[in-house]
Amino acid sequence: MAYIILSCRETGLDCDYIIKGETREEVLMMGAEHVINAHGMKAEDIVFKNIPCNFLCHTLR
């Protein structure tokens, strides 16, 4: 089974957290949960600012 892997550090944040999932949607959901809980971002920051492009979609082409 193939996994999609996203490293938090690859997005420009100083963090070694690795997100691993079976689908892009799963990785995006876990990534959003991580930035909210670990980096103190708010849900509206993820939706309305550059977070999706910069953080969640950077390595998911």
Quick structural summary:
The chain is α+β, with helices and mostly antiparallel strands.
Biggest sheet overview: 2 strands, antiparallel
Shape: globular
Number of helices: 3
Strand content: 5-15%
Mean of all residue-level pLDDT scores: 75
Describe the overall structure.
With 61 residues, this protein is an alpha+beta fold. It has helices at residues 24-39, 43-48, 51-56; strands at residues 4-7, 18-21. It is globular and about 30 Å long.
Give the topology.
Blueprint: E1 4-7, E2 18-21, H1 24-39, H2 43-48, H3 51-56
Antiparallel strand pairs: 1-2
Give a quick set of tags describing it.
61 residues, alpha+beta, two-stranded antiparallel ribbon, 2 strands, 46% helix, disordered C terminus
